[in-house]
Amino acid sequence: FTYWGTIAPVSIFEGIEELRPGSFRVYQQNQPVREVVYWQPTYPIISPEEKFSPNKISIQEATEELESKLMNATRLRMLRTDVPVGSYLSGGLDSSLIAWMGRQTKEGEFKTFSIRFANAEFDETEYQRIMASTLDSEHQEITVTGKDIAEIFPDVIYHTERPVLRTAPAPLFLLSKLVRNAVFKAVLTGEGADEMFAGYDLFREDKIRRFMANNPDSKVRSKLFDRLYPYLARSPQQAKGMAIEFWKRGLDRVNSSSFSHDPRWNTTSNLKKFFSDEIQKKLQAKKGPDILADLPKEFSSWDQLARAQYLEILTLFSPYIISSQGDRMLMAHSVEGRFPFLDKDVIEFANNLPAEYKLIGLNEKNILKRVAKAKIPDAIINRKKQPYRAPDAVSFLSEDAPDYVAEMFSEQSLVRAGLFDPKTARSLFEKCRAVIKTGKSILSNNDNMGIVGILSTQLLYFKYIHDINDAEHQKIQFTTRIDQVTRDSKMMKDNI
Fold this sequence. Notes:
The chain has helices at 59-79, 93-104, 125-135, 146-160, 169-181, 193-196, 201-213, 240-248, 262-269, 277-285, 304-331, 344-351, 355-358, 366-372, 378-381, 403-408, 411-417, 422-437, 445-466, 470-473, 487-495; strands spanning 23-26, 34-37, 85-88, 111-117, 138-144, 186-188, 336-338. With 496 residues, the chain is an alpha/beta fold. Helix 3 links the parallel strand 4 (111-117) and strand 5.
């Protein structure tokens, strides 16, 4: 309820830890547990005299090298398999480029898969079909409604095994089912491009706020915020006065490690007002991990964009985007996701690029657009940024919503779980339901996250804790099998 996910080693369940990304643990008899971090993102060190990374490679050379590395990463993920590999198409630059590269490695039939939304605000069908036509792929689509999201949401939470603040995983759950029904077991996706090449509005937002911090009262500088969030029906910029005051908060903390993410984290943290008194007390008594105290020692020597990218990978990408929304929704239907943008060579190359090769002015993914030129239709390359989203709270608030929704927000269920204050949570539910009844489907960002966050947490509790049959689970016997292979026996096996 701050970072959108659980930050390892903490998990949502007491007594269970998650491994940190890029790490492994060693368990040895009569020895303390040893945790080893074998990989983490790194970026060039910038000396105090330098404001930007020194350009050791021209933009043209970098474009050519990136294309080569990305093509190789895609080829490996297409050819190292004994099953056919399809490709997701979202309608955006990232998945389109990966699908194009996948198409170059495969002769004959090539399958692509897309989500359509009944709600036009979220739908990208036009661009998906343009790209499918360019690829000459055998294209399959699934149309998702708010009702669909509500009906399968309990299954989604069963697989995320943690609360979520958005419904975006739900359509991807249905999409992987479509892939599975097409008898495909692996798909290419464009995940990781926004994190590696500065595609999110958060990176542009950080840049504008730093620019504004030099002259907070400037009327001209504040107009740059008008270029953020053009895809939102309720953009923060629609209420101009309130929006500017929002962006001005914390400008005096421009040297803080968390400056880029403070607006998001502060906004999301407001949801904690829905927690019960007991949970509030527990949170005060037992603090979670302080990610800012555990940053790499080189963090302060990276450029501003690199710092923001690292925090995004640590707090949102790893626990939510690639896990709850990505891998767990794929594997819910036994589909393997393959991510060329997360190839080690691609990541390390991207991380070492000068910041302006990724974000020049407010133009995101600069170098990636250069790679895509003459491969991807201009209509896709030049379209305004529209990140993947899905209908959130409105999916659960219509008259024909599944019965479980009202049950999870009932006073009895809220009291039983003990996680949320029944009065505050029910007040939010009734308020939002009243708004939807008026025919308006637009709720505030906080109300959306509040409804989805409370509902997903309640479902998690009743699926994994309250409804567990203790008698049945006591029958389960956990055993450990240790297969110790000596050097001599291993050599013998290798010879055999």
